[in-house]
Amino acid sequence: MLALVATFVFSCLLFLSKPCARDMRLFLASISQQLALSLLGFLAGYRLLGGVASRATATAVDAMPLMPSFKRKRPAAKLETTDTTGEPSVLDLPELAIDCILAKLPPAELRNMAAVSRSMRERCRSDHLWERHMSDKWGSVLGTAARDEWRSYLSSSTAAGGGASGCGSAGSGKHRRWVAALSCVCPVVSWMRPRADGGAGTSGGPVLDDSIMSWYLHLESSEFWFPAQVYNREHGHVGFMMSCYDAELSYDFRTDTFHARYPPHGRRTVVLEDGVQWDRVRAPPVGTLAHDLHASDCLHELRPGDNIEIQWRRNKEFPYGWWYGVVGHLESCDGNEHFCRCHLSDTVVLEFNQYTPGSRWRQSLVNRKDHREEGNESDGFYGGIRKLQDKDEISKWKQLWPTDILE
After folding, report:
1. CA atoms within 13 A on the CB side of 84
2. Where is the signal peptide (predicted)?
């Protein structure tokens, strides 16, 4: 170290005595860097030596421990299991007991436990611990399309990160070496160390990988947009009452609501809606895309009183929305259930009782045998039909019923 100091002093004198060329400046900078690193290593060793010597003098004054290096690492297992206070740790429990405790923790506390140690991090990231949390909170709004979007998001993020990972690798290595040296002298600096998880975790966000924990945390952090459907879009606009439209959603953890982004259609650009409540969101019940005609497979079994959803769009440029209705009786039928033969007719009457009697939106007729898309530019186009079997689906539509009859 004294040789480095002498070389540094000589270089400074040379720099002051004559014009310094570019190579000399680079040499001086290198010498300064090595001197600083050596000084930090000396201080770190002195700091560690003081702790060792203070304990050693109690037993043997003439014992002279070797100066430890700040680069020396203790075994990982020892870091995780050693408890200098002698108090019991949760890591001392049997594995089954630890798993039972982790299974009872809510997501926020489970994430905090992942920061206790390396082995605990692996435990807390297990999919079986997060499956229940994902199902309880997100199960009603995440469908197959959302899972596909998540896989696509992972692939695109991995591809983008892979191209940038090589840039500045030498600079990042130097940065890590300097921070490691400083952290030995000043432990607070260790907070500046880059996380080993990489990906989104380096910026303080959730770690990006294919685990359920990663998906859950990305949903919570508003970083991920997923496809779903929204009842009564655009803040319950009268033109969309008793309908459900496809949208891309992003969760807002501050308000516990969603941002909705409706795709453009016709002359309209992308429509944004904020503050969408949980009770207005659902996972798409079928895999049919918004511009595709749904293949109706229930027409032969429809009877008066059945609850249905039917695709409807204003014109050919618009996406379909799902609209709620019921199967009605033919005009020739008096509605007596003992004599009703409406289910034997090729014509099916669909009623939308949220509209006033006499409205052109009140009723529509479809052919039971060869129904596809029917309609015109003035009344819109009616597409595929799905029969509602689930009581919860029917109850949801009843809850959305407008207070006033629509015109």
Report:
1. 1
2. none
Q: What is the pLDDT of residues 131-177, one digit of tens each?
A: 999 999 999 999 999 999 999 999 988 767 644 334 344 444 444 44
**Whose CA is closest to 385, among 316, 324, 314?**
324
Please report, in angstroms and rounded to a whole number, the separation of the first and last CA atoms in the chain. 90
- 190: CB partners within 8 A, 6+ apart: 179, 183
Give, in order, the Cα–Cα distances in Å from 226 to each of 8, 148, 200, 247: 59, 9, 18, 8
**Total Cβ atoms within 10 A of residue 310:** 22
Q: Report how far residue 135's alpha carbon sits from residue 115's, in angstroms, rounded to the nearest whole number.
A: 24
Global pTM reads 0.68
Least confident of 41-45, 133-137, 214-218: 41-45
**Separation in Å, CA 296 to CA 23, 30, 324, 369:** 79, 75, 15, 10
User: Hey, where are the domains in the chain?
Assistant: 93-125, 140-154+209-284, 306-400
Alpha-helical (H) ranges within 82-143 are 95-104, 107-113, 118-124, 127-138
CA–CA separation, 90 and 349 (whole Å): 66
